[in-house]
Amino acid sequence: MSRNGNRDFEGRDRGRRSLEAQARGRRRLGAALLLGTALAPAFAAGQALAQQAAQPTVAQQQKRFDIPAQPLSSALAVYGRQAGLQVSVDAAAVRGIAAPAVSGTFAAGDALDR
What we know:
Layout: H1 3-54, E1 62-67, E2 70-71, H2 72-83, H3 91-94, E3 98-99, E4 102-107, H4 108-113
């Protein structure tokens, strides 16, 4: 072949390598976008957990309790309403047990300990 023929071949070879490099770049970009899209919910969840950790839970918040002395099953129902928690108990397990009065401002766990 002539010298120009070799140059045409070299030019096509360079063009093919250029197209391959572009394709690799697009695949890398696609992979990076997929990874970013896949990690976005995990990142958002991490931020939400960090915000929740900074805020006190219902059990940690100070609340006013005014629970008169009464049977434990009734006292636990009143406690749940005042604490903003759902409380359930087997009535047979607490039958015959009296709960003392609880009055004051406490975290939910501290009020339950009284």
